[in-house]
Amino acid sequence: MAVRATASRFPIDSDALEASGLPWGLTVTPFASKDETGIGPAYGSNGHLLPRCENCYAYFNTYCELDQWAWTCSLCGTLSGLSSDAIARYSYPHDSIPETSSSFVDLELPLDGSEEEMTQARPVYVAAIDLSSSEEFLELTKSALLAALEALSPGSLFGLATFSHKIGLYDVQGPIPVVKNVFIPPDAESKLPLELEDAMPLLQFLAPVETCKDRIAAALETLRPITSWERSSGAAQGIDGVLMGGRGFGTAMEALFNYLGSEFGNTFALARVFAFMSGPPDYGRGQLDTSRYGEQYASKRVDADRALLPEQTPFYKDLATIAVQSGVCVDVFAVTNEYTDLASLKFLSIKSGGSLFLYSSTDDSTLPQDMFRMLNRPYAFNCVLRLRTSTEFKPLHSYGHFFPDPQYENLQHIICCDSYATYAYDFDFANNTGFSRHSREPPVVQIAFQYTVVVPPEGLQNSELPSSSRGKHLLQRRLRIRTMQFETAQNINEIYDSVDHEVVLSLLVHKVILVSLEDGVREGRALLHDWLVILTAQYNDAYNLVQYKNGNKSMSSQIDITFSQCPQLEPLPRLVFALLRNPLLRFHEEGVHPDYRIYLQCLFSVLEPSSLHCGIYPSLTSYSTPDKQAYPRHSLSRAALLTSDSPIFFLDAYTTLIVFYTSTADPSLPFPPPQDCLLRKNINMVKQGRSITPKLMFIRGGKDDATAFENYLIEEQDVDGSGFASARGFVSFLDDISQSVAEYMK
């Protein structure tokens, strides 16, 4: 569980918080196997016996005072009695007990009644494939699923379904694959004429992977796109007999969730549905009107950037609730460059604990690698995340892909969580007093994460096991707790000196996404601009950098816009500029596809701070040869390239990696760089640490089209995209901020 705060020293009270101009909060990656310094938890059992505070329900931890019969809570100061078992337990040497030897523990819990019955539950995976598509789309999907089959552990069950104007269910347990079809009514109100269970019993549909892998592969080979003739006989006829599509995605998903839900808690504890789409749902329930993409300019009064961000129907949000109740987590893979309205569809994945992937074409898609990577990493499910604080402050907002508990405050449910998924919180003071300057009780944060994992039995490889037990998975419920003490800052300089700019960026990105969803991209940009102006003014005020003289006209020339007195704040103006140049906040007129914007919102709101930093302001490294690094970090400007003598540059933009050879590079340098060189080793290391597969490109300046690389050199670009790229992009942005700060300070 990695936890990072915006500043390691907390503001002393609300006045100090306001004076700093900074957001106050933290990010948490609960299922990360180690903390932010690379240290793992102390493991143990009997998590249900861990003492809890009688007042605030916090868990006993290393910061609590322990007496013979009682203990004092480190969060609220309440004295609670110990049970006779706990008294006996804590009479042993403390270094042998997880919760007294470490503030980061991971303890096994006993399974409750319903989970007890599921101890033999098997992992279930279902692929739902769009047949209203092309041969290329199906070829890509097949290769992705063949990669997925290699990543699935023995004992898993796999189901293959298709959708178009009908739902196809495949039985691959016999000698040849058999498909049963259920036709979808064309209108948005009608339900299926037949339950899927009646078309094919669920346990006939879900096949054991280890015995049926070849048959599943054979069934995939039989998939063909629906022909226009089939579609016209099944799909709705529009005006003058024009075809009205035939992608009954909404109906198919609803039917699949109900189908799977019948065995939830019996055959499986979590089912994962992979939905492969090649375009928008245009048939049956959950149809989406994609004409709004073309019509957004029709009315000059509508902000195009605002019009396409909200969902047009609550259907998929409601469908996600059905998925959760059925124990289903949905991953959506959209392979399309047409407008698909991900703004409406995204809820299906993010509310059910899944991921949303967007690929603009089948040619260079990393879909097979992403599938394999996603299934190959550990994940937890049925998770509950709870953040508690000491009494002086409280969590204000929480951000991330979870759903809040309807009953308890600051309790979040996460359906499925991998080791990359990150959540954020911001804080506020509970009262006007704040922290006491002379108190010996520092601020404390405790994060509790309860989760279930599927573990193969330890004797899985043991050939002596009876064949009935081999390949069976066991459920394990665990409780992970991290308790952290922070220091308070005695003055504003101490806050500034302890800032983590990457966590500040994370909270800003979450806030900006929320504002742009509610009020449009322009409002999101304005919020960011105003925040930087206020922070700069507060910093200049704190360091007494501006002399207020009567009639002083050169006030803006005195303003320190680059935070030269504080290295921790120095990166922030560049990060804000880069965020304003990111497709997340660029205007629609600059050619930002609304689906790509939604995809970035979903991706950026789960990234941990360092990865997000890389996605917003890519890192640019130079090499003198493929085996020798020249300089570890350059600014993203053409000037940096011109002033550097290095012939090779490596750009890491999180989703894209580019190796760029300058036009003046020595022709004897090997291109592309050889597999065994240092540059390749660094590229492979970067790829291994990613939650998604980055796209790798090699470009030779002067020979290849270098646009893809040059687009990332943002510092000469105009901040709002209105003017031509000029040598004054970032510089003129700073001038503008400086003028605004002068106005604000007057």
Automatic annotation (TrEMBL):
The keyword Hydrolase does not apply. InterPro entries: Sec23/24_helical_dom (IPR006900), Sec23/24_helical_dom_sf (IPR036175), Sec23/24_trunk_dom (IPR006896), SEC23_SEC24_subfamily (IPR050550), vWFA_dom_sf (IPR036465), Znf_Sec23_Sec24 (IPR006895), Znf_Sec23_Sec24_sf (IPR036174). Pfam families: Sec23_helical (PF04815), Sec23_trunk (PF04811), zf-Sec23_Sec24 (PF04810). Keywords: Protein transport, Transport. Residues 500-612 form the Sec23/Sec24 helical domain. Residues 122-374 form the Sec23/Sec24 trunk domain. Residues 51-81 form the Zinc finger Sec23/Sec24-type domain. The keyword Transport applies. Belongs to the SEC23/SEC24 family. SEC24 subfamily. This is Sec23/Sec24 trunk domain-containing protein. It comes from Brassica rapa subsp. trilocularis.
